[in-house]
Amino acid sequence: MRAVDHAKYRLDIQGLRALAVLAVMLFHYDPALLPGGYVGVDIFLVISGFLITQQLFLKKQAADYAATVCLRRFYVSRLRRIVPAYFFMLLLVWGVAKLLFTDDDYAYFLASLKSTAIFTSNQYFAHFGNYFAPGLAEQPLLHTWSLAVEMQFYLLLPALVLMLSGTWVKRVIPILILVLVLVAEWQLRLGGHRQETYYALYSRIPEFLVGSWLAINVVGRDWSQRCADGAILVGLVLIASSLFGLNSASSFPGLLSLPPVIGAALIIAASRSRLSVALAHPVMVWIGFLSYSLYLWHWPILACIRYYTGSQSLGLQATLVFGFGTLLLACLSFYLVEEPARKLRLNVLRPYLTVSSTLAGALLAGVGLLGLYQVAPAAKAYIASAGLGSEYTRYADPADLICHGSDTGHCVKGDLTSELEVLVIGDSHAAMLNDFFAELGKEQHFKARVLTASSCIPIPDFNISKLPEWSQAQCLNQIRRVQTELERDRSRVLVLAGMWSYQLQDSGFAANLEAFLKAHRPDRIYVLSQVPLWLKNPMRIQRFASLGLTSRIPVDPAYRRANDEISRLVKSSGAHFLALDQLPVFSQAPWLAENLLYMDESHLNQVGVRAYAQAAQMQIRTLVSHDAQ
Asked: Transmembrane stretches, by residue range (predicted)?
């Protein structure tokens, strides 16, 4: 048991934990400061595999070993180590999200909370993708994917260590490491499943198993001090090369995970090294003991700050809130929740468990109701503000099917009996015009076929590689569909709409658009300007105002620059540019007569789309009269 206790509290390993958590926190704060800081998670997994396997393996070799007792103790210790602080964090974050988030954003949070509560959030985020969901940087529970992976691995490790003989375990582990690393690499490079692979359990198992292999083979036990010194230096160099050399997680883990994983393994094995003193410094050891709580709290605080400010970068004030808030909550979590739970003697408290569990359940239920309805007067204002009609939170009725990302068979809007048909294509800024053309089409007796895809202008040679994985197939489908429509009738008027400030970030987009305009009768093509863009989400600002948190909504000048560039390009190609962003309806945007026109920073809601349609009647009448000629 002394060996187990010594391994559990090896000071240099605590220092390595500190290095890992600081790397992750710095990367999450600003990736430019430490581009490969995300490998801190991989270092954690190596440490976890080493310590847990050592604990299981030594118990297995004990003379009084009993598999059932060993497993029970193992799972109880893991649950006591992880679950109390974890659910304490979930409870507080849930309360903040309930108050702070808009209804739609809270729905996405709640979905992540459900998977997080049962330690499957890695699977949730592996398939997460929605254009209108808050960005990953604003998902407070994103970081729990690694804890889900860890808990899932704990279900597999005892079977590997306890059910197989030591000889077989030593043979199987290297084979599993090699096979799973190669599978992950294949999925990243050839399979096209980068997002899924990043969060997958199988792609992270090799990192645990490297630590397990160290423990089972007692690597480093017979090393000389000189050999250990060399090993720890090599390990630090490998980790540093990853921290500063990697700049994207899109091809990770796979083979790129090997340098930091091997580096962590060498540092763990080199326990005899004189250089371990640096890792065993009291400050590093203290941070190491706090590492789990620091990891739990730093990301929700960052995500909520970014959600409130609408900016990825943090100013001085937000940085101070992040730093002090993380340290304060981590200390509270560690000293008041994590440590007491770890030291709790269940056999002493067994007579009181029934009563205490009942009281705890009642307390949690009371806290839940309090958080929902009685936190503060501002919370009541928040709930009252949630009574906004659904037309303020969407640009189209879900029941009214639209062809966004696929041909649903409901692509035509307006006067369906009319022989005049225009073709409308673009990204979600064109998709939000479904009601626009439905309303004006009925008034002016024309119909519009609207074919759109998220972040995609469905024209030939559009660069789909810049799109998230979940939207690439949809973009390709709509490009083919648009081509079919153009081949069917090349004389129709064509309308393009898009978020030009986003599309022009791709250096090749302007040339592709110009080539498309010139190839399809530019005199019959109309390109709509991008509607005004905001630096903050107006819907969120209105929600914050209901909580007494005031904030202004500055315009983002990027949309004006983009409109100017698109206008020059369109006119030089012989096509028509409609500067609809200059209509009077936007003079007081994002409001009109105290009605909110926007559902987020860039998209109009249904109220805004209807107002936009009425304001643009003359311009659309000109477009339709051209089609009738």
From this structure: 12-29, 35-53, 82-101, 145-165, 172-189, 201-220, 227-246, 252-271, 283-308, 314-337, 349-373
